[in-house]
Amino acid sequence: MSVLLGRKAPDFTAPAVLGDGQIVDEFNFADTIKDKYALVFFYPLDFTFVCRSELIALDHRVDRLKELGVEVIAVSVDSHFTHNAWRNTAVNKGGIGEVKYTMVGDMNHDICKAFGVESIGGDSYYPAGVAFRASFVIDKSGVVRAQHMNDEPIGRNIDELVRVVEALQFFEENGHVCPAGWQKGDAGMVNTPDGVAEYLAGNSEKL
């Protein structure tokens, strides 16, 4: 996996199914996320198992992410037509239902390669050629501020991704850094020796 932290997220144009069900041939990433936060959510394949649970969990939290100004974009190497079929299949029939975020088809694998998340097989559980289970939180200037990746059998915690966005926005608004386990509503930490000492004096037992 490439380390994109602190760098501009790669731009791309690809076919996609939008959150309203519209199919487009040229979804442009940079235009879509301009002046917005973004979550780019790679997953291995449509009509699989852990992926299905993750995409449904993501949809359950998409309204909160939208409240935070986050554009949610899911990407796999499947076609936009396969995405559409999965989206139009009911959850109790093995589908994900009409999820409210964009699903991009990376059929030529260019997006996976640009983000450094294409599997080459080997000792991982991933088959070669699919996207890793990888997530990128991107700020309003298009810079990657967090990236996470799990091996194929291990589903992601979508609440943690929401928390990371909230922590990023808290830092941007207050200038205070977010200590271990920070949750929305918690105090931050002034990133000076005195600030750290003051925070730990009142909070170290909670860590």
From TrEMBL:
GO BP term, example: response to oxidative stress
PANTHER family: THIOREDOXIN PEROXIDASE (PTHR10681), THIOREDOXIN-DEPENDENT PEROXIDE REDUCTASE, MITOCHONDRIAL (PTHR10681:SF128)
Protein name in UniProt: Thioredoxin peroxidase
Ranges for domain Thioredoxin: 3-170
Active site per the UniProt annotation: C51 (cysteine sulfenic acid (-soh) intermediate)
Matches recorded under PROSITE patterns: THIOREDOXIN_2
Family of the protein in this entry: Belongs to the peroxiredoxin family. AhpC/Prx1 subfamily.
Function statement: Thiol-specific peroxidase that catalyzes the reduction of hydrogen peroxide and organic hydroperoxides to water and alcohols, respectively. Plays a role in cell protection against oxidative stress by detoxifying peroxides.
Keyword hit for Transport: no
Main location: cytoplasm
Pfam families membership: 1-cysPrx_C (PF10417), AhpC-TSA (PF00578)
Taxonomy of the source species: Bacteria, Pseudomonadati, Pseudomonadota, Gammaproteobacteria, Oceanospirillales
Any one GO CC term of the record: cytosol
Keywords: Cytoplasm, Disulfide bond, Oxidoreductase, Peroxidase, Redox-active center
GO molecular function: thioredoxin peroxidase activity
Location of this chain's protein in the cell: Cytoplasm
